[in-house]
Amino acid sequence: MFSAVVRNGLRRTAMTGVRHQSTKQGTMVPAGLASTWYNIFGKSTGAYASWLIIGILVAEGITGTAGDMIWNTVNHGKTYETVDWTKFVVEDDDDDEDEDEEEDEEGEEEGDDEDDDDDE
Fold first, then answer.
1. CB 48 within 8 A of CB 41
2. CB contact at 8 A, 103 and 97
3. Cβ distance 34 to 42 under 8 Å?
4. I want to staple 41 with a disulfide (CB 3.0 to 4.6 A). Which of 51, 59, 71, 93 is the partner?
């Protein structure tokens, strides 16, 4: 029971110290900076809304760019933009052109036979 009383007393003392420390002026942001920010953005709802919208857009731009950079670094060579397409070139294109030329020549020869029939 004695230890419970001592423990509760220590808790109260510690909590009181924390409360007083958190209310000290200038612990997080210098007073001049906070006052200037309030005079520019904090006094009107429109200015504060503008502050929020601009802040959100800037933060989104920064995180989006950082995310894309990380994604491209991790997946380099695996995405469409970073694949080396020269590895997939097929050297077999000449055969297809030869076949097309042969078909064209055969078509011309057949056309010549028809012209001979007209002369007779």
1. yes
2. no
3. no
4. 51
Q: Which has the higher per-residue pLDDT, 29 or 22?
A: 29
Written as one string, the DSSP assignment of 40-107 is IIISSHHHHHHHHHHHHHHHHHHHHHHHHHHHHHHTTTTSGGGS-GGGG--TTHHHHHHHHHHHHHHH
Residue 38 is classified by DSSP as I
Per-residue pLDDT at 57 exceeds 80: yes
What are the contacts of 95-102 at 24+ separation with CB within 8 A?
Answer: none
pTM equals: 0.46
The answer to whether the beta carbons of residues 82 and 72 sit under 8 Å apart is: yes
- Give residue-wise pLDDT tens across range 67-83: 999 999 999 989 888 88
Distances (CA, A) of 19 to 6, 12, 16, 27: 20, 10, 5, 13
Distance CA 4, CA 11 (A): 11
